[in-house]
Amino acid sequence: QVQLVESGGGLVQAGDSLKLSCAASGRAISSLYMAWFRQGPGKERDLVAEITWGGLPTTYADPVKGRFTISRNNIKNTVHLQMDSLKAEDTAVYYCAGRPRNWGQYDYWGQGTQVTVSS
Known about the structure:
globular, 11 strands, mainly beta
C-alpha cells in the first residue's frame, strides 16, 4: 500500500513563495508517475502539475505556468512543488497523487495540505 504525505503548506502573502513536499512510503516513487492537484473553496479538484518517472517531461496547468515547478527525488522518495509569485487565487488544499501508468486516473492520494495566500 502506497502512502503519500504532504507537508509545507501555510499562510503567506501574495507574491511570496512556498515549497510543498510529498513523502512516499510503501513503494519506490521511481515506479510512479506523480502529480500535484489542488481544490479551492467551492471548486473541483484540478490538476496543477505532473512529472514522469525520470523527472522529464513535466506539464503544468495554464494558471501556474511560469510560477510553479514540480520536481522529484527518487532516492529520497519525495516529490516537490515550488510555488513562486503566489496569488490569492492559488489558495487551495494541495494534494500529491501517484499512479503506475502515464495515463488514466491517479491511484494514490495524500491527505492534502492547506495553502492560503492573502492579498
